[in-house]
Every structure is written in C-alpha cells, then in structure tokens.
Write a structure and sequence with these properties.
Layout lengths: L1 H38 L7 H22 L18 H33 L11 H5 L1 H22 L2 H5 L5
C-alpha cells in the first residue's frame, strides 16, 4: 500500500504544480489583455478562451486535490447528524454515503468520456484545439476521484469507531 501512497503523493504534487502554473498563466493573460485593451486599444483574441479553458482544468484538478485529503476529504460535509452516531450505525451511514458518491462519480465519468468522444473532432474558435482536449478534465477528474473514493470506502470499512470520530488526526 505504501507504493500506492507514494504514487498518489506524486500525483498530488504534480497537480499542485499544475494548479500554480495554470493560475499564474491565467493571471498573466488577464493582466496582459487588460493592458493591451486599455493602453493600445487592442487585445489578444485567444486569451479569454485560454483562460476559460485553464479555469475549467483548475476546477477539476482542485476537486481531485480537495477530495484526496484525509478520510473525509476537504469538501464541505454536512456531518452534524453523522457525528451523533457511533459504532455500526455510523459505519453504515459512512459506507452508504460513499457508495452514493461512487455511483455519482461513475455516472459522471461515463458522461465525461462520452463528452470527450463527441467533441474531440470539433475545434475551438480562437485556439483551434480539439474541444475534447478541454473536456478531458471531466473523465480524468471524475475517474481519479472515483479511485480516491474507493480507497476511502476500504479505509472506512476497516476503520475503528475512534478513527471515524477523530477527523483532526487525519
């Protein structure tokens, strides 16, 4: 399991670097385009499209990163009822919630694959890259979050009551 953890840690580091890079590129493009429009009365026609596509990728990569942290991840979680449960009832609720998430992520993954396949032949208007390349972030994001959630399901099923109750020690 430590080899998988090292692989995941490497992927998470790569995602962090990509997020920093994409955020920097978006910021530079927006500032550069504002200066060009205000000062020189012209702009880069492709920069708005590039920023939009980078923002889409940042959203999905950020979701992977947030879903990775700890047993419960860092996504918002309404757990005021679950926190009152202990033992087997709590484990049943936790496993049930993860199974629902898996069904949802699996469905979104399949939809993402279909979206990429359907839009790959189309080119974007300004950058002239395949639209499927832009939407590739959906199956990558949902697929990786599916794997992360499967791992969480295994961890929750093996977890003791103390491990389920102590989020801050994750």
């Amino acid at each position: 399991m430590s080899a998988l953890k090292k692989l995941n840690d490497g992927i998470m580091k790569f995602i962090k670097v990509a997020l920093i890079l994409f955020g920097t590129v978006m910021t530079v493009l927006v500032i550069m385009n504002v200066i060009l429009r205000k000062v020189f009365n012209s702009g880069l026609s492709w920069s708005e499209e590039a920023c939009r596509f980078l923002f889409i990728w940042v959203t999905f990569l950020g979701a992977i990163l947030a879903n990775d942290a700890g047993l419960h991840g860092e996504h918002m979680r309404m757990d005021f009822i679950v926190e009152k449960l202990t033992g087997i009832p709590r484990k049943i609720v936790e496993i049930g919630a993860l199974l629902i998430v898996l069904v949802m992520l699996g469905t979104l993954f399949i939809g993402g694959v279909e979206l990429v396949q359907g839009t790959w032949p189309m080119l974007t208007s300004a950058l002239e890259i395949p639209k499927g390349a832009v939407y590739l972030c959906a199956p990558i994001g949902f697929g990786y979050m599916f794997i992360q959630t499967l791992i969480k399901l295994v961890r929750v099923s093996k977890a003791t009551d103390d491990e389920l109750n102590h989020k801050e020690e994750e």
